Amino acid sequence: MTRLSRLGLLLAICLALLIVAAACTNDDSTSTSTAEPTATGDDAGGQNGDRARPTPTVNPPVPTVQPVGTGTVDAMSVSGKPVPAAAMRGGTLIASVWHSEQTFSTWEDHGGASFVMMHPLHNLLLQPRTWGDTDDFQQHRFLEVHPDLALGWEISSDGFNVTVNLRSDVVWTDGTPLTCGDIAWTYNSIRTGRGLIRSPRSVYLASVSQVLCEDDYTVRFILREPQASIIDALALPHNIIRPQHVYANDTAAMRDRLPTVTTGPFVVSEHVPGESITYRRNDTYWDQPFPFLSGLQFVILAESALATGLRSGTIDVGKPSGYAYEEAETLESECDNCQVWPRALAMWNTHHIILNHSKEPWNTSGLKEVIALAIDNTKNIRNVHNGWHFPPTGCGTYPFSTWAMPIDRCTDIPGFGDFSTKSSPAADKAQAREILTDLGYSPGELSISILFSETTEQDVPAVISDFQEIGINAAAVVLNERDFLARISEGDFEAAVHSEWAISDALDILLLGHFYTGGHDNFGQFSSPELDDLIDEMGATADLTNRRELAWDALELALEQQAKIVVSHGVLVPIYSERLRGVMPGLDFQAEHGPQLRYDHAWLAP
Q: Is 276 helix (H, G, I), strand (E, B) or coil?
């Protein structure tokens, strides 16, 4: 045996020992509850992880869990969240994150580990619902917005003022009371970007002209024009509340240092950069009797190791948003200590084609329509995604939302008819070839380079063949996620296939981010004064019915001009360890960026 082989064997043995040692720190017992998802499948052992990032030893050990002591009926927490009678206190929840930490600033980050690491330490002003059973989940109650640091809110009859009453019993961990000044400074920083390197979600607060304090516990948001989605915008999971007295003169500290002045259910007890972060219970957390857990630990693992960790019992949460394809099917059938929730739409896994609207000749309306017609949605869903994607029936909006565009309007848009009776993939391609001929292009005359990320790499064969079939030579360039985002952010591309889509089900948030001139997700530099005027008119309309009609007009215009070409929606299955209780998953953007990661009302079954 060579020296290299012996070294490889030694590393493999060490990795195995680490996984076994980590698994031993968890409670292996299981139980089921009629109010929770059921465990399924048989144990089938593990699979190899990433040797470059071995599973770290999980520490500390899980202590014995004890009843919370609410009696035999459910109670309510201070904030009004349910406290199940069956809840247990104690134990350490082991969760994972497959992003290395870069900053600790959720206000500035597009993605990454900051959201995972910060939510256990902080609260939001308003939050999406994170509690419920499978019935609540299937009724999409994760779309509800509830008070968190707020007691409630009121929108004026003209839509120009939103008044939020705050809790008066919340104290930062350094003893300073939380007041309106912290809320106003937080939202003023986010909406203006003052003191920040970037503020990617400021566009969703563009209608807010001022955030004022009427007194220490009353904050007022003054709007330039009514915004139907203002509550959704205030409740975006990125907007954690930070202490003004700590960061107002040192915003760099939000990026560079773990916070020690917080309001959340946990406080940091240990941080090993690049490996793990461990929290202990904040015994003085204002929302009593939460948290139930004694501790919480996030370990940084390779994405390929997450399913293995669930099957072995090493971790309780792998991908918080869920799993798809063979990975989900394997866990469903082989993980005997897993709970499986119903399938949910993955908003961030909405695959779409971005054309660079500043690149000739792809910025001409005729060629943009040709590409929309060329894409075969049904082939993509059937052959590429094996039924784990479905047609964009709401024209890219969340199809269960009141904002979803009616399907009969969607299928009148070029390229959307091939999954309905209005057209077919073959008819669309024939029309595309006819338009190319009318524009004076012969088959093979045009060539285009298409960027793909690791997330959309599986789409390469189908998309390239769609272009080739209508006579356009297409070449794929596959990049890692960071380089892909850098290229499209800089406008250095002709076309790209992307997956990140919406961070809310509210349609005007989608329109502002993706299609408005200068929107932070408008990577193709699409600009239409007519569309901007429609979105502005929508923003100035108080009546929700009229507002929705304007939103549909705007979305229809954007898609007819191929601002982006929606291909298909993805589906995910939330799967956790069987012992985890008290957490209802949300949509993928909520599960990966939201207060689901706070685990304040989570508990562990004995």
A: strand
Comparing CA positions, the residue from 448, 447, 555, 547 lying closest to residue 497 is 448
Which letter does DSSP use for residue 456 in this model? T
| Angle between helix 365-374 and 460-469 (nearest 10) | 120
- 3-state helix vs strand vs coil in the chain, percent to 5: 30, 20, 45
Crossing angle of helices 529-539 and 544-560, in 10° steps, is: 160
pLDDT at 66: 53
Which tens digit of pLDDT belongs to each residue from 97-156?
A: 876 667 899 999 877 788 889 999 999 999 999 999 999 998 889 989 999 999 999 999
pTM for the complete prediction? 0.79
Tens digit of each residue's pLDDT (9 = 90 or more) over 229-249: 899 999 999 999 999 999 999
Fill in the amino acid letter for 33.
S
DSSP string, 40-79: -----------TTSPPPPP-SPPPPPEE---TTS-EE-TT
Instruction: With beta carbons less than 8 A apart as the criterion, state whether 237 and 590 touch.
Output: yes
For residues 308 and 47, give the distance between their C-alpha atoms in angstroms, rounded to a whole number: 6
- Helical residues (DSSP H) of 249-342, grouped into ranges: 252-256, 306-312, 325-334
